[in-house]
Design goal:
signal; mainly beta; 3% helix; TSP-1 type 1 repeat; elongated
């Protein structure tokens, strides 16, 4: 067990104050290498008081605050050559505070041979016809044309260059249509816009007439009457647009309570653009509608325990002292263990089976058995997964004859433990018992 490594992780999780603590961008969610819901910048120890959080350093990589765990393997890539022998590969990433503590931490890349299927890839098709121009007349129009890459997606490397081209359209003069001029006769409006629907002083215009055709006359005798009616007519300018109303902010609401009981959280305050609301083309309220601030509880969140991988099974030994059971039809027993790691700050203990398992076994390590050939085992992956000399191998399966070990009478058959020296004789076809192949074009080691 990696007891020392587990203790190291626990110390980190315990948020021991460090003299070289630096600020990081803290996020409330970490999902398979992606940080989401940014909280703000805090010290790494404070951010990682919650093991579900993630943080981003100056290098831009998102890291988890939780215990180390492998991501799923990626999908196998396309073959790295278009035609002939090459390799495809898949990768995985270790997430968590102590990334080097993932089981088999160096095993991040797997490679297997493949044959490029694009030997007959033709490349680009002919260009399609140009599209219609984006404008019907005048300047500034563009048109496009496209082409497609023949063959399946893995053959895309056979097509270099763009799949789309754009060019300016030939220009043409747009027709000019006639229109009415404005009415004459009225004076200009007294204002340029209507300030509000309920305003009593709206912009207006006037026209005049004089009582002079003829003018009223008469002297010592009764004079003529003045002309009936008004000398001035007034008309509201109802066709004018409403005046723009710029938006204004309401007061900020108080900051919300800290939403977490451990780690760091985010308090929010907002305001509304309704004092007044922007209207009739007026400017919207400047600035942000919401503001936030970090709150710190200075309490570490519980860190739940996680099982380590099972250890290898111990040597198969007799339960009766030092009696030797190797190569004998006498049952022994063996154990394996696992540890509940990373639990801290009153987190949950590991659930499931116990920390240790015991099973009955027969010790057949290096014992001679007659056997029979049973086909080939699967090909191994390419080893090493990078560099210039990568190979894979497979062996014929020589199945030992364990018929003399009568374990069928037990409810749980004992395990046959160890690597026997099985003798299956000559192979059925006279060929080799093991095959080795070169993996061509393996990726360079970084």
């Amino acid at each position: 067990m990696k007891v020392q490594a587990a203790l190291t992780v626990l110390l980190v999780l315990a948020s021991v104050e460090r003299s070289d603590a630096v600020g990081v961008r803290c996020f409330a969610r970490f999902i398979q290498g992606v940080c989401a819901d940014e909280l703000g910048e805090v010290e790494e120890d404070d951010c990682c008081q919650n093991p579900h959080y993630g943080h981003q350093d100056t290098d831009g990589q998102c890291r988890s605050c939780g215990s180390p765990v492998w991501s799923p393997w990626s999908s196998w890539s396309f073959c790295n050559v278009l035609c002939g022998q090459g390799v495809s590969q898949r990768t995985r990433t270790c997430f968590g505070i102590a990334q080097s503590e993932c089981e088999d931490a160096e095993n991040k890349l797997e490679v297997r041979p493949c044959n490029g299927t694009c030997c007959d890839a033709k490349g680009w098709s002919s260009w399609q016809a140009w599209s219609s121009c984006s404008v019907s007349c005048g300047e500034g129009g563009v048109r496009t044309r496209r082409r497609t890459c023949s063959g399946p997606p893995e053959c895309g490397a056979a097509c270099t260059g763009p799949s789309e081209e754009t060019e300016d359209c030939p220009t043409s003069t747009c027709p000019v249509h006639g229109g009415w001029s404005g009415w004459s006769g009225w004076s200009g409006c007294s204002g340029s816009c209507i300030a509000g629907q309920h305003e009593t002083d709206q912009p207006s215009r006037t026209r005049h007439r004089s009582c002079s055709n003829p003018a009223p006359s008469g002297h010592t005798t009764p004079p003529g009457n003045r002309c009936p009616g008004d000398e001035v007519q007034r008309q509201d300018c109802s066709e004018l647009p409403n005046c723009p109303v710029d938006g204004g902010w309401s007061p900020w609401t108080p900051f919300s309570a800290c939403p977490v009981t451990c780690g760091v959280g985010l308090q929010l305050s907002d305001r509304k653009c309704n004092s007044p609301a922007a209207a009739h083309g007026g400017r919207p309220c400047p600035g942000e509608q919401r503001r936030s601030r970090l709150c710190q509880t200075n309490v570490h969140c519980p860190v739940d325990g996680a099982w380590s991988p099972w250890s290898e099974w111990s040597q198969c030994k007799s339960p009766f002292g030092q009696r030797d059971v190797r190569c004998k039809q006498q049952r022994g027993s063996q154990k394996r263990r696992r540890e509940c790691l990373y639990r801290a700050h009153n987190g949950s203990i590991c659930s499931g089976e116990l920390q240790s398992q015991t099973r009955a076994c027969y010790d057949v390590n290096r014992c001679y058995f007659k056997g029979s050939w049973e086909g080939w085992e699967p090909w191994s992956l390419c080893q090493p997964p990078c560099g210039g000399t990568s190979r894979r191998s497979r062996k014929r399966i020589c199945q030992p004859d364990y018929s003399g070990y009568h374990y069928s009478r037990l409810p749980m058959p004992p395990a046959v433990f160890g690597t026997p020296a099985a003798d299956c004789g000559a192979t059925p076809d006279g060929g080799p018992a093991e095959e080795v192949q070169t993996c061509f074009n393996a990726p360079p080691c970084s």
